[in-house]
Amino acid sequence: METGAEEKFDNETCEDSDSGQNQDELMPSTSSRNQVGRKSLSGQVCSLKTLIDDQVMEPGQSILTMDYNGTKFSADLLSNGNIRDSKQIFTNPSAWFNHCKRQISSSDSMPNKAGSAWSIIRYKGKRLDSYKLRWYRKQKKIVSSATMYETAMALSKAASEKINSSSSGPSFSQLHKEITSPTNFFPEEYPVKEKNVVDHQSLGSRLQDRSSNIMVKCTPFSALERIQPFTISISTNTLLIIDFHCHLTTGEVIGYLGGTWDESSHNVSILHAFPCKSRLGDKERSTIIEEEIRQNLEQHNLTVVGWYHSHPFAAPQPTLRDIDSQLDYQMVLRGDSDVNYIPCIGLICSSYEPENPRPTSRYQAFWVMPPSEYKPNEFGRPMQMIYSIARDSFLTQDLLLDMRLLAHYYTDGPDSVKFTEIFRDGLTNWEKLQYSLQPNLPRDLTHTSSHQNPTQIQVQQQALSHFWAFLKGLILT
Ligand SMILES: [Zn+2]
């Protein structure tokens, strides 16, 4: 459920004096001005000024046009991004759009839906939002041929450590084989009676007044007799950091998913989660955070392949707002052609969902099928994406550092979870967290193979209790 927590990712700084205007109209295909989907990773918001500065548009006389309910309007685009209509100046498209709308008495026949201004106003005859999309594409960083350097380093490190820790273990070649072939497994499914979730077909059209907090059940591809367009694997370390992030606060959290896209096998590997450590209304901070994440991705030679967020107390099904955000992301990452196409995945984590009988979090990976061009007023259909989980060999220093920073960020906050308090049935929140993290621990903290000798098992148990002590130190002191 969206409780307005997205406010925290609102980096709106250059949308001029638009506060006071109908904010929802600033951006095409997103229902809320507060969505991360609205911005480039650097946190920059796209305004007319941005489009001019980045040479996507040029100022000109009568270059902006609008046909609203049969009435035609035109205006000049000024070099500072303002719009001049006869003698009046408007600082952004919504302001001009609203002004024109007011001139038509029967204006109430047209609903005030999201993104109206950007989809109705045209520049050189083409919709404004198409220029915005062009700008987004220019912004996105595609790291081509993502190297697996880091993974290779990790694997060789693990291999050498295993050999050093046990001379009586399996041979190097056996070990190498064991370590280089990832142990993929599928997440366990069990029935949960989800609350407040509706089916896509019951939604009707956008023209009806609906709360953007309505959750929509994801449709499996099999139900439409289709095949999932690409396969997904998520590393256990990614899930660990997401799960930890989601457990720290009763508020919603958000972050990006970094990974690689293999065009030939049509597989997305999600290898890294980049949590956003920012809170409601902290605009300055969220701008810095997004810039940090962008640099971090580059350092890791990874591409953005999606985003995650939490529904702390609700089912992991996307809301109408999530669906629109996801569509927005899909558009941005789609690229201009098949060559630079990158899929984009939404992942929702439900950490404290009351209907979940187990103490483990539930996840839903989703993708949105856009409405057909003949039914533009329909909502996109959220599709259930099946993924496998790839078990990492060990926890990375990055991950431990991220956990430390996250704990530090949330611990004293007003929305922080108190881990000494009872979750339910006599289980403390701390114990609940341990249960939830357990399935996604790396190989060196998990009993995986039968050919482990007692020494190896002992070392493993010691390492595990170290890890719990480390976490405990972060959140229970
Ligand atoms: Zn949501």
Describe this structure in words.
- The protein has 477 residues and is of the alpha+beta class.
- It contains 12 helices and 20 strands.
- The strands form 4 sheets. The protein has a 10-stranded mixed sheet with strand order 7-18-11-13-12-14-15-16-17-10. It has a 6-stranded antiparallel sheet with strand order 4-3-2-1-5-6. It has a two-stranded parallel sheet with strand order 8-9.
- Zinc ion binds next to loops.
- Residues 2, 309, 311, 319, 322, 348 line the site of zinc ion.
What attributes does this structure have?
single chain; 10-stranded mixed sheet; 6-stranded antiparallel sheet; 31% helix; binds zinc ion
Low-confidence stretches: 1-44, 140-181
The molecules bound to the chains, other than polymers, are: zinc ion
Strand content: 15-25%
Spatial ordering of strands, largest sheet: 7-18-11-13-12-14-15-16-17-10
List strands and helices in order, with pairings.
Blueprint: H1 48-53, E1 60-68, E2 71-77, E3 83-85, E4 88-90, H2 93-103, H3 116-120, E5 122-123, E6 126-127, H4 128-139, H5 149-165, H6 172-180, E7 184-185, E8 197-198, E9 215-216, E10 219-220, E11 231-235, H7 236-247, E12 254-262, E13 267-275, H8 283-299, E14 303-310, H9 320-334, E15 345-350, E16 362-369, E17 381-384, E18 387-390, H10 397-410, E19 422-424, E20 427-428, H11 429-437, H12 454-475
Parallel strand pairs: 8-9, 10-17, 11-13, 11-18, 14-15
Antiparallel strand pairs: 1-2, 1-5, 2-3, 3-4, 5-6, 7-18, 12-13, 12-14, 15-16, 16-17, 19-20
The site of zinc ion has 6 residues, from loops.
